[in-house]
Amino acid sequence: MGRKKYRSQAGIIYDVLRTVMEYGEVSMTHIMYGANLPFDRTKEIVKSLVSRGLLEDVRVNGKVMYRLTGRGYEALKELEKAKRLLEELGFKF
User: Fold this and answer.
1) Is residue 93 included in any domain, yes or no?
2) Which residue segment(s) compose the domain that 38 sits in?
3) How many domains does the chain have?
4) Which of 23, 77, 37, 34 is nearest to 54 (CA)?
């Protein structure tokens, strides 16, 4: 059995926001696979990001989809800067 790769909460949020940005409007399932998270954890994080104004939910053909808000886009850009800096210093993000 291999070692689990540890991701910080910031790293998980980065992966969720990045997945949504890459695909535009995405389902919870798509976010789950893109961010490599179990469904219950994905649901919890997405709900938190919606409540903080980083994601918004929209209905597309009767299905709930998620997309980045302007605030979410800005947060993703700041997380990308932090990720680069930490990796340059030899830390995991």
Assistant:
1) no
2) 9-83
3) 1
4) 77
Cβ atoms within 10 Å, residue 66: 24
Residues near 4 by beta carbon (within 8 Å), at least 6 away in sequence: none
Q: Give, for 56, the enclosing helix (H) or strand (E).
A: strand 55-60
Helix, strand and coil content of the chain, in percent to the nearest 5, comes to 60, 15, 25
Domain membership flag for residue 71: yes
CATH at 57: 1.10.10.10
Global pTM reads 0.88
Q: Encoding tokens for residue 21?
A: 């940005």
Which pLDDT tens digit goes with each residue over 40-60? Answer: 999 999 999 999 999 999 998
For residue 88, give both structure tokens: 């340059």
For 46, phi and psi rounded to 5 degrees?
Answer: -60, -45
Q: Do the Cβ atoms of 68 and 21 come closer than 8 Å?
A: yes
54 domain-assigned: yes
